[in-house]
Amino acid sequence: MIIAVAVATVFVLTLVLVPVWSRWEMPGALESLRLGRFHHAFVGFTLGSLIVHESELGAQFEGIRNSLISLSLVWIGVQAGLDLDLSKYRKRPASQLISESLQSLGTILLLFGCALLGSTLLRVHFGLRLDPFLLSLLLAISAATIRTPDVIYPWKGRITQAGLNPGLPLVVNTNTASFVFLLLCFPFFYNDAVLQLGPYTSVGNSSTLAAILVLGLLLGLLVDFIFRSFDEDISCTYLCTGLSLVVASLCLALKMPGLLVGFLAGVWLINTTIRRRTVLELSERISGVAEPTFYFLVGSILGTGWISEGQVIGVFVAALLLSRLFVRGMGQAAADKLQNSWRSWIPPLAVGLRPMGTVSVASVVQAYYLVPALQSSELLIACLFSVYLSQLLPVPTQGDSPMQGQQIGAPDSD
Amino acid sequence: MRNLFICLILVALIWVTKGVPEGFLGVSTSLGLFVFLPVVMARWFERFLLPSYLGPLLAGLAIGSSNLIPAWEMASLQVFANLGGVFLCLHVGALLSPYMFLNQRVLQASALVIGITFFVVTSTLIAFWNIPIHSVIHLGLICTVTAPILTLLSYSDRKEGLMVSTATTAIALLLLGVFRGVQAAGWPEVTFQHVLIYLVFLELSFWTLRQIHTEHGKYLLFGSSSVLIFLAAKQIGLEPEFFALLTGYALRIRGGRGRLDQLDSTRKLSRCLIPFVLAYLAAKTVGPISLLKGYEWQFILTFSFAMYMGKGLAAWVASKFLTISGRDWLQIMPHGLFAILLLQTGLPEDLITSSPAAIVSAAILLNSVGISLLLPVLQFILEKIKIRRLEALEAP
After folding, report:
1. CB nearest to B208's CB, from A11, A197, A245
2. Quick check: B28 and A197 CB within 8 A?
3. Mind listing the pLDDT tens digit for each residue in A94-115?
4. pTM of the full predicted structure?
């Protein structure tokens, strides 16, 4: 009964809020939160807190929830993989790719160092048992990545999409570089996985890497086959979802990172499929359903047990955002100096204040589905607070024109 | 070949994960097979110019009889099949035009089909089988149900046939609901409070649907509504699919003359869900048909034969008074989704049988699969008869 009341309340709220949102020009901060799916996470948190009390339903829901979250992680990885279109990178000069890759790599390594320094405190206060290197790696990826599409909330003016001026060349995407780095380092830091699939058992870094590669390529291959065999978009979506659920469940059972499996699948798909435009269009439409569902499910995990650790969470959030601002800003400043394109501190500040997004949340959520699994939700709530706070912080733009804002944002966007 | 490769991969994964302790893995892998294989088989049948819904039915029967998926995993998939069925029926109910039931020709045709089929089936069962009257009436009403969704899938050009099939099924379901209510055996526990909450929910859904214009918003809302309807149906002890059908129809009536475009946009997803729901239903009811005894086969053949006789007689009688083509009349022959659902829950309790599931499986094979395979042949014969008559008329 309480579930029905809760869902009905959601209906009523939707009924009331949709016409309000469509007519009201929201302030930039609220619009930024809305784009960050804050309301979905909040609804999930509310319903999750209610469902826990109905134990039978809670147990059923938890089983389905884990599978759906794993599916969402695979999907987020696929989205990231679709950005790694090698044909576009081949058209750019190698020196530019190398310099921007090094900038991204330097940022991630510095953030990794910062996270490693704080990992002991995290393990003590949040009760985390995950390997400190692995935990730091995931936190570094979470801090390094930005929201996509790269929507910024400027100090003055309305929300704009920071992107490349069409005249400027394509550069290495920070999110893509983060995923590649995660893929390369993950097997070496993930020592606790024992792969057991039916009669087969395997332990070790190479088997972890092999499992990730096989699952990722298998998913990419099968999805490519589906797109070649079926013409209707909805049929392709439906079948790909079914297959992805299978692979996501395998990742969950084998304690493999669904994010990386999805990333590999996305890379394979975008570089081999003949229906590239259909894939990209569909992925945008699917994101409209997948992302809200992901935030809803993540919200339902949180519970209320984290409130007692509020102070520590606050310190973590502040430390994360400050270190992110410093490292990313310094990275951009160093790059500008080396390339003799330095103008002022505003571009590095803008880069440092770029909001975090879904990939940041997904990196931390992934930690909950590895070995040993995280139990408490403090780290997740801290990550969510960090993400939404970063989305609330205004980003300076050089001059008054949004186009200039786009030019400043070039190194971190597609 | 690609689709076959994917099916083989899925089957291999199910086989490998059979012994894995994590229950959800087996369930998810099985779900993947149920999602993929029926769609592929539907395409293959379509390529061979056969009704596409045969593919999912046969896929389900094949999966069920292969013992690849354990019984407890099949039971775990029930909730997904229910939710898929609810989504589908919500959409189908919303497509039903209230004005179809004001069409006199359609109503007359449906009344004839129901009346004659019911009379023939009940007479046959009473004459040859010693079954109590309430069970005979129940089975008689189930036999009058047709397959409008399957007709829509494979014979969408048969407009009049589709309307007659839809009206017949709707009236038969209504009569069944009333009969079960009168019996008070399976009447759901509905109070005035439930009815009030339901009406408020309908109104809220209607107004919320009208506000939402984005594609993902419609899918999210439909999904939430499906979950809510499923939970409510479980609460009051009603089959979720029928409750969703009723709700969808109520929304359609609430919409008045104008159709809700938001409901139309989910049509494609509904078509994708049909193979999954059909396959699961078929797989779930697979029983050891080979173990059916002689008298059980006689029972199945009796009521199936009586059903075809009744429907055929009704079509012949109606064709004397109504100008509906023979090919349209053929659409009332097979049993579809609703009939399969009813058979699963409505077999006569007094019928002594070692395996009710096997009886239902045999009934599906005969009345859904078998007759559907014959439909193209029957259509061909009818066309030939029509051509010969025309030639005879034109001959000097």
Report:
1. A11
2. no
3. 777 787 888 888 888 888 998 8
4. 0.82
